[in-house]
Design brief:
CATH class: Mainly Alpha
Helix content: over 70%
Structural class: mainly alpha
Number of domains: 1
CATH superfamily: Tetracycline Repressor, domain 2
Number of helices: 10
CATH topology: Tetracycline Repressor, domain 2
Strand content: under 5%
Order of helices and strands: HHHHHHHHHH
Distance between the termini: 43 Å
């Protein structure tokens, strides 16, 4: 039962991100997933219910990724690098129409979505900053709460389709610049040396 619902949420998220929300009907979703509407409605009440579940699903998956990287025993810069590759991949998969539809057609859902993401991101970045200070790769004098808050705000700007999008910009490109600026503003000499080597080794293309 749980796996079936997870499959539905995974594929629904992929379809919404590719085509937007407004133009996709429940018929489209069942056809794309190769299941009957009857099966779909066993798990989902309506489109709004599906969107709520999809948003919860995505937020949980991002949180799981962060926790998984935290548990690998790598240093804080590695954790953010690994997470950043996943974020960049996810941003490349999002058609700006998806975020636009969410904002304009489902404003309350959109607020809930960003509020959930804001809280989780803030806590995860705080955790990363404290760990990095303890490891000796981040500066000891940084204001942890303020830096975490700025990171959250910058992430929201990157996710906003009205923010600096155009022929010369993309969400993934903006995120790469944001990520580099974040590390450069918090890393000490040891952390910066490690960061520069990491960029070179991984061909991060910043």
């Amino acid at each position: 039962m749980i796996k079936e619902l997870d499959d539905i949420l995974f594929h629904s998220l992929r379809i919404f991100k590719k085509y937007g929300i407004k133009r996709i009907t429940m018929d489209d979703l069942s056809r794309e997933m190769g299941i009957s509407k009857k099966t779909l409605y066993r798990f989902i009440e309506n489109k709004v219910d599906l969107l709520e579940k999809v948003i919860d699903y995505e937020n949980k998956k991002i949180d799981e990724l962060f926790n998984r990287y935290e548990e690998t025993g790598e240093n804080s810069i590695d954790v953010l690098f690994n997470l950043s590759f996943d974020v960049i991949r996810m941003l490349k998969e999002i058609n700006p129409v998806f975020t636009y539809d969410l904002q304009k057609i489902y404003p309350e859902l959109c607020r809930d979505h960003f509020e959930q993401k804001r809280k989780k991101t803030f806590e995860n970045i705080k955790k990363n900053l404290l760990k990095g200070i303890e490891e000796g790769v981040y500066r000891k004098d940084i204001d942890v709460e303020m830096v975490a808050l700025l990171y959250v705000q910058n992430m929201e700007n990157v996710m906003n389709p009205d923010f600096l999008y155009g022929p010369s910009f993309s969400a993934s490109g903006l995120f790469k610049v944001m990520f580099e600026n974040h590390i450069r503003s918090i890393a000490n000499e040891k952390g910066m040396k490690y960061f520069e080597e990491k960029i070179k080794d991984l061909n991060f293309n910043i």
